[in-house]
Amino acid sequence: MFSSRVPHDLAANRLSTLVKAVRAEGRPLIDLTVTNPTHVGFQYPDDLLAPLADARALRYDPEPLGRIDAREAVARDYERQGIRIDANRIVLTASTSEAYSTLFKLLAAAGDEVLVPRPSYPLFEHLTRLDLASVRTYDLEYHGCWSIDIASVERAIASRTRALLLVSPNNPTGSFVTREELLRVTALCAPRNIAIIADEVFADYELEPGRAADAGRAATANRALSFSLGGLSKSAGLPQVKLGWIAVSGPDALAAPAMERLELICDTYLSVSTPVQVAAAALLTAGADIRSQILARIRANYRALQSAVAAVSSCRLLRSDGGWSAVLQVPSLESEEDLAIRLVGDGVLVQPGYFFDFPRESFLVVSLITPPSEFANGIDRVLRHFDCSTVLP
Ligand SMILES: Cc1ncc(COP(=O)(O)O)c(C=O)c1O
Description:
Blueprint: H1 14-24, E1 30-31, H2 68-80, E2 90-93, H3 96-107, E3 113-118, H4 123-130, E4 134-142, E5 146-148, H5 150-156, E6 161-167, H6 179-189, E7 195-199, E8 226-231, H7 232-235, E9 244-249, H8 252-269, H9 274-310, E10 316-317, E11 325-329, H10 336-345, E12 348-349, E13 351-352, E14 363-367, H11 372-384
The chain binds pyridoxal-5'-phosphate.
Pyridoxal-5'-phosphate is lined by residues 35, 95-97, 121, 167, 171, 199, 201, 231, 233, 239, 244.
């Protein structure tokens, strides 16, 4: 009865089942996997969402690509990051996830392929499948910092490749795509009519000074048809508001017909509410305060993590240049899943690397937006497992 777009096996994995049981019993669990900024103690002003009640939103005038004033506000936000983009080349969506779906509809027919980085965000497999596209991976390699294995991109390109996804900074590796990498990837994609989709939702969150300035931004790539994705969910810590965007760039001969087709797709759903479009400019401005709270938190937690891990010789913190997560490499004494389950028994929840398709074990991913004292306590519990000088009870 049901389509194969949705997986047949919907059973929860061992770790999720255990976590559910621990929570149902009310046992304390330090959550180092939290990615919801509204749950971790940031100070959101009480009236932050007042612009959603603007009376201009009482009138409905459907605009498939979004109201021009909201698109101009997004263009100004790119300007804040040093990128000039015409508001007419911006498309509003309800979220970045929806932006992906819109772009897969634009670029891929059933069975066409999208190249995604590995390791990366696990939602890509699911998002492509829902739109009948297939995923092929290319590799990110770690050698003191992460970089794109360009040879693996070349190997992954096939006759049905329609798009290549870049995530910058990537979740969970924290690596920005450099200018040089963007140029090399563009040189491979442009002659083959492969579009570039660059997920830049974490672009504001730089951990290592200078990395964001050195990043290649898709909106400046003029050889290949390129789509840069962003949204209030991460840039202003407001996932519940539901506003994302796509900035379209590249040769006019491709960008103009892409805009016409995007208009048709967006007109079919008209999913972005009028109140959020009316409020967009105010929310983008007010979001700066939340963004700086998040930035201060992730930097402080990352520094604390660097010194905690430095004291445990068997563990290594992989370099993270930006984003909300950090990756620990730990001894492979058992499977990542068994380790994560054992850590839950010790009152701390982390994400095992295989969730993000790390090519081998053992990696643990932790969220840097966790409240600082919980973060320190949780990391301490994780590291105790590997510290030979600690006698476990
Ligand atoms: C890399 C990346 N892209 C997109 C999203 C989803 O963003 P949105 O809430 O705008 O759909 C996430 C959420 O964690 C993410 O990590």
